């Protein structure tokens, strides 16, 4: 494999790692190249991205490299954001929102564990509608992003504060509430 | 011996799969299935499954009945073979053959997917980028487009799903607040308001039993036609009104 | 602004939209270019990505375009992804997936008719692995849910679009089965 192919791998790694980014060291481990070579490749990529026909740039923060859109295109991205909105929240989005509301701050993986299904799409939906936001990174491996609800969330549901949410955050009790309620309803429908 | 049978039977995805297996094993022409033979073989498998106390899915039994029906129809004296076109339709095996061929198409396709899967040539996308700007543009917010009730429901759906794998247990808890008392309280709140009371405001104490009692009280009041519930559109807020 | 700059904008838009993807039409609205020009730019980008030194490819699913990593680099990315599925799909799941892939949108009942068995479990499995999703309801009695494959289905199998699926064996050559065999069995059935 020659250097230009490794460049492709490094670009792919940066792409896949998303907003989490990667350190040169991590990339060296994954590609089994030495850090100097990685740095060299990163510089080449950085140079490539400066070309006016390219749509991304490389950023560096706390030794993590990641790809990002170019600020000079931000007008278009703003249009993208306002364009993408649908009026009503889907069941998947509502579920995801409920999970974030009661468990914030919470990571994507934790949300998916509770829902039992992949949740990229609903997370993105409620993120882009400003109902949740990034509230920091969890101090575990990979430093995953954590989400929490926003002020708009309160407005949307007509709440004055997050404390006005029904107390589903008492982990042990909440199962019982829904269960007893549903048992009660089962009885009702039988009548 | 028994073990090898079990392995085989477990490996069948269904009656069609078992039939295809037999057809392959006996090198049978799928367009000209010897029904008597295949029925005998098929029934032997089912019998073995039953002997081994395996849970024979009902689909296997339905297929057995179908095979027997086709077999008996084949035994009837061949009335008149008019012309070639009619023959196809009159063949009692035609429908089964069509199903087998249709199913085999996807069995083969599954095999190909499996090969692709084995090549481990996945690709990966990335999550959409969050747009961070100082002047953050917020999408227009419509108030009360969903109620907490919707969310509560959504949450419940999550818990219900999670519980699929757990045994169902019922806890009967002592109810501290008499329903009658809570009914009076709720009725009073509703009667005092002119424009109705939002559903969620009736849950001021977030204790488990209080929520349930309030809920039951509301339902009882609705049943007795003392209050009614209003929701303009599916995702609108629930409003409680006194019955006039 | 010249075409190469618009190319940058389009790449940026695809990058930003991530796994949400974008249609040519959406890109046309956002950039205020006509759809033909967008298609032209997309083709150019597609061509650029084929270069061995590039780390991304363009996927297409349901008229949406997405960027994704290249399947030939998957070994490196698998090291990155902690939530990557290690377990392979079962025969039942693969069959069900094949039926959905070639017949989408399709209902549970239609799947079960083809397979000849109840298929709740494999449907649930591939749903929770995000390989299929609910795509709407059929306009028949009971309004049953219909399923279709997802973007993750494409990425899981390293396909660029659903058209890359291997063609179905519509006609299987039966000539191999010798006359002899059927004669032999005819004799058997007479017994």
From TrEMBL, chain B:
Keyword list, A-Z: Cell cycle, Cell division, Chromosome partition, Cytoplasm
Recorded superkingdom: Bacteria
PANTHER family for this protein:
SEGREGATION AND CONDENSATION PROTEIN A
Q: Which family does it belong to?
A: Belongs to the ScpA family.
Its chief place of residence is cytoplasm
Q: State the protein's name.
A: Segregation and condensation protein A
InterPro entries attached to this UniProt entry: ScpA, ScpA-like_C
Kindly give the Pfam families that the UniProt entry links to this protein.
SMC_ScpA (PF02616)
Write out the annotated subcellular location: Cytoplasm
- State how it assembles: Component of a cohesin-like complex composed of ScpA, ScpB and the Smc homodimer, in which ScpA and ScpB bind to the head domain of Smc. The presence of the three proteins is required for the association of the complex with DNA.
Please indicate if the UniProt record lists Cytoplasm as a keyword.
yes
What function does this protein fulfil?
Participates in chromosomal partition during cell division. May act via the formation of a condensin-like complex containing Smc and ScpB that pull DNA away from mid-cell into both cell halves.
């Amino acid at each position: 494999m020659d250097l230009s192919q490794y460049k492709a791998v490094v670009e792919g790694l940066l792409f896949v790692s998303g907003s989490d980014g990667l350190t040169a060291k991590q990339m060296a481990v994954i590609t089994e190249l030495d850090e100097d070579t990685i740095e060299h490749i990163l510089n080449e990529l950085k140079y490539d991205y400066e070309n006016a026909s390219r749509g991304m740039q490389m950023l560096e923060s706390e030794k993590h490299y990641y790809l990002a859109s170019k600020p000079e295109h931000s007008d278009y991205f703003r249009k993208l954001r306002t364009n993408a909105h649908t009026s009503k929240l889907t069941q998947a989005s509502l579920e995801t929102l409920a999970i974030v509301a009661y468990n914030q701050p919470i990571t994507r993986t934790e949300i998916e564990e509770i829902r039992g299904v992949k949740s990229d799409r609903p997370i993105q939906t409620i993120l882009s509608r400003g109902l949740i936001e990034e509230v920091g990174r969890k101090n575990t491996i990979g430093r995953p992003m954590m989400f929490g609800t926003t002020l708009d969330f309160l407005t949307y549901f007509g709440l004055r504060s997050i404390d006005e949410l029904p107390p589903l955050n008492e982990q042990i009790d909440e199962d019982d509430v829904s269960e007893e309620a549903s048992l009660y309803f089962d009885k009702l429908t039988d009548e | 011996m028994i073990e090898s049978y079990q392995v085989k039977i477990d490996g069948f995805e269904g009656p069609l799969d078992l039939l295809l297996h037999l057809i392959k094993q006996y090198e049978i022409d799928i367009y000209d299935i010897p029904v008597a033979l295949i029925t005998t073989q098929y029934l032997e498998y089912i019998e073995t499954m039953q002997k081994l106390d395996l849970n024979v899915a009902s689909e296997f039994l339905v297929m057995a009945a179908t095979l027997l029906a086709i077999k008996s129809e084949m035994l009837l004296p061949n009335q008149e073979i008019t012309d070639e076109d009619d023959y196809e339709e009159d063949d009692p095996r035609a429908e089964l053959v069509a199903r087998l061929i249709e199913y085999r198409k996807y069995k083969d396709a599954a095999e190909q997917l499996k090969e692709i899967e084995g090549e481990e040539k996945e690709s990966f996308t990335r999550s959409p980028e969050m747009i961070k700007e100082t002047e953050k543009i917020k999408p227009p917010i419509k108030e009360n487009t969903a109620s907490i009730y919707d969310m509560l429901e959504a949450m419940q759906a999550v818990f219900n799903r999670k519980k699929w794998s757990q045994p169902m247990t019922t806890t009967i808890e002592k109810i501290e607040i008499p329903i009658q008392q809570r009914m009076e309280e709720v009725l009073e709140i509703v009667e005092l308001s002119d424009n109705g009371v939002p559903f969620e405001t009736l849950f001021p104490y977030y204790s488990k039993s209080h929520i349930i009692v309030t809920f039951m009280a509301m339902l009882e009041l609705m049943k007795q036609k003392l209050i009614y519930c209003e929701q303009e559109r599916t995702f609108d807020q629930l409003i409680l009104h006194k019955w006039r």
